[in-house]
Amino acid sequence: QAAEVPLTPKEECRRSYAVAGYSNYLNQCQVCTGTKQGGLDSCQGDSGGPLACPLPDGRYYLCGITSWGVGCARPDFYGVYTLVSCYSDWVKSILYASVSAKRVNQTSVEGNH
């Protein structure tokens, strides 16, 4: 399933969660989506799923990963996503390390024949 949800200003999201006692739960590597009225949201079981954001040319890119929220689509509680951009250097380092390891192993195997 898919839903089109607006990004929510960080301060609005913080205020909403602070009222419910979650004032220190949002950090700079998170973004919120949804509306104050509720109705559209990710839910339990969606964690790890994608938040796709549009590019000017009509394509989409992975900008967030479903993280947490309070209930599902409840008024005043937005969906919280982890920003992929905060971890892109780490992801690249893991990918490059994996590629480098495969090259080293291939070289070793080829050299032993």
Main traits of this protein?
Thrombin, subunit H, 113 residues, 2 helices, five-stranded antiparallel beta sheet, alpha+beta, globular, 30% helix
Helix content: 25-40%
Can you write the helix and strand succession as a string?
A: EHEEEEH
How many domains in all?
1
| Helix/sheet category | alpha+beta
CATH topology: Thrombin, subunit H
Secondary structure tally, helices: 2
InterPro entries: Peptidase_S1_PA, Peptidase_S1_PA_chymotrypsin, Serine_Proteases_S1, Trypsin_dom, TRYPSIN_SER
Pfam families: Trypsin (PF00089)
Protein name: Prostasin-like
Domain Peptidase S1: 1-96
Structure overview:
The chain has 2 helices and 5 strands; from the N terminus they run E-H-E-E-E-E-H. By secondary structure, the chain is an alpha+beta fold. It has one domain (7-86): Beta Barrel (Thrombin, subunit H). Strands 1-2-5-4-3 form a 5-stranded antiparallel beta sheet. A hairpin with a 5-residue loop joins strand 3 (50-54) and strand 4. The N and C termini lie far apart (51 Å).
Report a brief summary of the structure.
This protein is an alpha+beta fold and 113 residues long. It contains 2 helices and 5 strands.
Topology, element by element:
Elements: E1 7-8, H1 10-19, E2 30-33, E3 50-54, E4 60-68, E5 79-83, H2 88-111
Antiparallel strand pairs: 1-2, 2-5, 3-4, 4-5
